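_Backbone structure tokens_
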Amino acid sequence: MYRILKKAGASRVSDESAEELRRVVEEIADSIANSAVDMTSHANRKTVKGDDVRLAARHYRKF
């Protein structure tokens, strides 16, 4: 998380900001993963494919 914040242009990164970014990213990833699993199930498959994740992420960004 420190590296991501630094890459975004932060000159200094607090522990609190890195932890908060981790929490937010995990929340977003959980939502995308759940949507991808739902899409997989809807397609009568057991294996989540990259396309499922990409589609779920694209759908997530619209909100």
